[in-house]
Design goal:
Order of helices and strands: HHHHHHHEEHEEEEHEHEEEHEEHHHHHH
Largest sheet: 10 strands, mixed
Helix content: 40-55%
Distance between the termini: 60 Å
Number of helices: 17
Radius of gyration: 24 Å
Length: 428
């Protein structure tokens, strides 16, 4: 890493570091210290000059822009203690390589996994969910050409849309990794790229988009167990039963479609899977009648256990809601392709930082976040309020104030949702 002065004095840089160290982003910087940011730059091979808007300042502005309620460049700059123009901030964000933000996302995700370890398991499995959603963005020729628009029965959408798929820990909401791509890219293709972020022995719970014998084979090759609804095109009544259980479930041989084996010759001709009867609401004409799982032993994992494990999947919808609305990821503001990818990665990192704050509070005050389902948005508001107060407090008082905030977070649990009772809105 090389540095050369371009009219910025050492005194100015030291004053900037002091404001960032003691200012309103103090709560975030306890989780993401300077060393982590600088190490990410070094591992990404990013060589930069000595500027006022260093990578450290730029990353913190990215994060403050993601969590700041006003969601404007100037408001985020004020939060970070900066007095610079929006144009200078925009250029600094363009200079920062995408690899740096990706490495910071992985660093915070690893921190969240470590804090989640006491709460992430159920029935001996670490529960992981993969799901997808769509994000809108500015209508520029570059974004429209890369991400594309949605074709509906009412015509093409007015704005480009990207497809986002995340892998997250079910019990704590920590996002392990994400993939963003053009709208024309399927959720399955993006989801397969997330399997590397999972551990062997994890239990994957996912919706019908991630069902299919070709996908099941990929999960099992990674050492994963899984529970999904049966694929809508699978003729369950035609399957040859191998074993039946008293709880109503059965084990059957499921053929792998010839089209999949022609495209991927390494796939087997059939797989042995277990089917558990269930009745789920669906937007299809017929409801879901069976869950498919790789857990074949009914003595160890009865049908009711499988249903209960699959019911844990629903909090991922809350994760998307938190990512979209309070963090404003529903409509992205970047006008370039690289900017969109960096913006989404930063918002995922910001959400994980809030999750880490929740988990630290839970650990300190003996509160189980998996059972209490602490409200992330209230935690985010508390964190923003705390950053204001820490900026005016002397250093000796800050640990006491952080402890009081952690206690407040743990005293504001959300009522548990054992099943999904809130139905999606439908158009008449």
């Amino acid at each position: 890493m090389t540095c050369s002065c371009i009219g910025v004095s050492g005194l100015d840089l030291e004053a900037m570091r002091t404001r960032l160290r003691e200012g309103q982003l103090n709560a975030l910087r306890q989780l993401l210290p300077d060393k982590a940011i600088l190490d990410a730059c070094e591992r990404a091979g990013y060589v930069y000059r000595r500027r006022l808007l260093t990578p450290l300042v730029t990353v913190l502005h990215y994060l403050s822009a993601a969590i700041w309620p006003e969601d404007s460049f100037q408001a985020a700059a004020a939060c970070a203690g900066l007095d610079v123009s929006s144009g200078s901030l925009s250029k600094a964000r363009q200079r920062l390589p995408r690899e740096v933000i990706d490495k910071l996302e992985a660093y915070v995700a690893g921190l969240g996994q470590g804090l989640s370890e006491p709460y992430a398991f159920q029935q001996g499995f670490r529960l992981v969910s993969i799901d997808g959603t769509c994000l809108s963005m500015e209508d520029t020729p570059q974004l429209r050409g890369h991400f594309g628009v949605v074709n509906t029965r009412h015509g093409k959408s007015k704005y480009p849309e990207g497809r986002l798929v995340v892998a997250s820990l079910v019990k704590t909401g920590t996002i392990l990794a994400h993939r963003l791509g053009p709208y024309r890219t399927s959720e399955q293709a993006l989801g397969l790229g997330l399997l590397a972020s999972l551990r062997s022995g994890d239990l994957l719970v996912a919706d019908a988009h991630f069902a299919g014998s070709n996908l099941y084979w990929r999960y099992m090759q990674r050492g994963l167990d899984f529970i999904t609804p049966a694929h809508q095109r699978l003729k369950i009544k035609r399957l040859r039963r191998i074993r039946r259980y008293r709880d109503g479930s059965f084990v059957a041989r499921v053929p792998v479609w010839k089209s999949h084996r022609k495209k991927h010759p390494y796939l087997p001709e059939a797989m042995t899977l277990r089917f558990v009867p269930v009745r789920l609401r669906s937007r299809r004409k017929r409801p879901v009648t069976h869950l498919v799982t790789s857990l074949l032993d009914a003595d160890s994992h009865g049908a009711q256990t499988i249903r209960e494990l699959y019911a844990q999947r629903w909090p991922v919808e809350t994760t998307f809601a938190e990512l979209k609305h309070p963090l404003s990821a529903d409509v992205l503001r970047s006008k370039g392709v690289e900017g969109v990818y960096k913006e989404v990665a930063t918002k995922v990192t910001a959400l994980n930082l809030v999750r880490c704050l929740m988990l630290q509070a839970a650990e300190r005050h003996k509160c189980d976040p998996a059972a209490a389902q602490l409200r992330t948005m209230q935690t985010g508001d508390d964190m923003l309020q705390l950053t204001h107060e820490l900026g005016a407090d002397p250093p000796a008082v800050r640990p006491l104030r952080r402890d009081a905030q952690a206690h407040g977070v743990c005293r504001q649990p959300e009522p548990p949702r054992t099943h999904r009772a809130a139905r999606r809105a439908t158009r008449n």
